[in-house]
Amino acid sequence: MEEKDIILKAEHISKQYRLGLVGTGTISHDLNRWWHKVRGKADPYLKVGESNDRSTKGQSEYVWALQDINFEVERGEVLGIIGKNGAGKSTLLKILSKVTGPTTGEIKTRGRIASLLEVGTGFHGEMTGRENVYLNGAILGMTKKKFRLKLMKLLSFQVVSVI
């Protein structure tokens, strides 16, 4: 039997957000969650069994954006994430790219994950296209030499046509 070449694995990923005032206690909650996790204890803010139905007014000040997401991606596979508005697609992408952390669960990766969460993010109008490309390569931690090689490969695929 052939061993799988897993490059991305999501195990029991859940994300819970606090409703109400923006920024109220979030650093405190994150630190408290981290402290509980380090000691191997359950998340003190996790409320099991609550509804995530945003159309009804509940008594909870928390909402689940994701609950118990599990998947694996093997080398060469393509993963598509689709769903209705509010389904948690952007939240999952933010967790995968380490913009935010999961409330529970773990992401395991082999390689680098880079995501474009919003069109235009990371591009500056005052800079040239080439300068923007180099800036984003630097943000991804690429050396100039490695980046130049990748840029040359990218430019070799460039096709310009005039209609």
TrEMBL record:
Residues 66-112 form the ABC transporter domain. It is an enzyme of class 3 (hydrolase). One of its GO terms (molecular function) is ATP hydrolysis activity. InterPro entries: ABC_transporter-like_ATP-bd, Bact_Polysacc_Export_ATP-bd, P-loop_NTPase. The keyword Hydrolase applies. Its EC number is 3.6.3.40. Keywords: ATP-binding, Hydrolase, Nucleotide-binding. It comes from the Bacteria. This is Teichoic acid export ATP-binding protein TagH. It comes from Algibacter lectus. The lineage of its organism: Bacteria, Pseudomonadati, Bacteroidota, Flavobacteriia, Flavobacteriales.
